[in-house]
Amino acid sequence: MNNKVKLLNRQSSLEFLPNLSNKLGPKIYIKRDDEGGRGGGGNKLRKYERIIADAINRKADTLIIAGHFQSNAARSLVGASCQLGLKSIVVCKEMISEQNPTFNQNGNALLMKLMNANIITIKPEDDFQIEMKKIADKVNKKGNKAYLIPFGGSNLLGSLGYFDCANEIIEQFKKVEGTNPDYVITPTGSGGTMAGLVAGFAIAKTSTKVIGFSVLHKDNIIENTVNKLTNEIIENIKPKTNIITDFELNTKFVGEGYGAPTKNGTKAINLLAELEGIFLCPVYTSKAMAGLIKYIEEKKIKKDEKIVFVHTGGMPLVHAYYNQYK
User: How far apart are CA 262 and CA 271, in angstroms?
Assistant: First the structure.
């Protein structure tokens, strides 16, 4: 399970946000998983280090992923494939309504075009898994070997990347604060990032609570997924142990749906850009930051507590949604 390809050259930085902290009250740090790595960076690279290693161990030379035209996961996979000399295929369908006239030509779509991505478009009603299997069969018949990437990179192998991240945060935070953070905040899509963080802090026996803000699901499907993946990680790392996990998953900041910007999310993008020169994205991190701000306003998170916000990337999406900002 520790077999990895090298997609990240170093630990991502943990940075204190003095201006945001002064404005909101609590001491807020940001874990910069938006920086570094090929193809535009982002949280998927942690997940792909083990997933792609598994593909290579199985002698695969063609990686197939499902997504949409603005998919961070697809863009990161194409970049990693370019770096490693592998082929990649992105099976795309419309999941987000076009936000402006250039929506499907800008942002991640543009970067994938620059990387000469092999994009196969399917109908919105088509089933991803069925179509990916058909494409994989064609790849295999031509003498290559296909490997299907799990949705969002969120299986055990991918989630272990964020077990690694939890340990990085523990190490980095102790250097600057001499303790563990009270809360770690993350956007939650397919669940693997959050599961890895929850398992990491639980196995380390910290008092840190992970709070995830869903950007995809509005029901308890995502909580079930996070629980399942968290338990798989714990069983893999510390089998047959009774480890207590502490997390909260909030589904009230999704807005109209996946990929649809929210008013408070857009405010969060403007706030962080103005105060810290850091760019959030309208699909993932802005909604999590909007949730964090609300929790502070409602005193669910107190002024004397310490927070780490996990920046999972997605900066190219800022360009795709150019018409959403003030």
Answer: 14
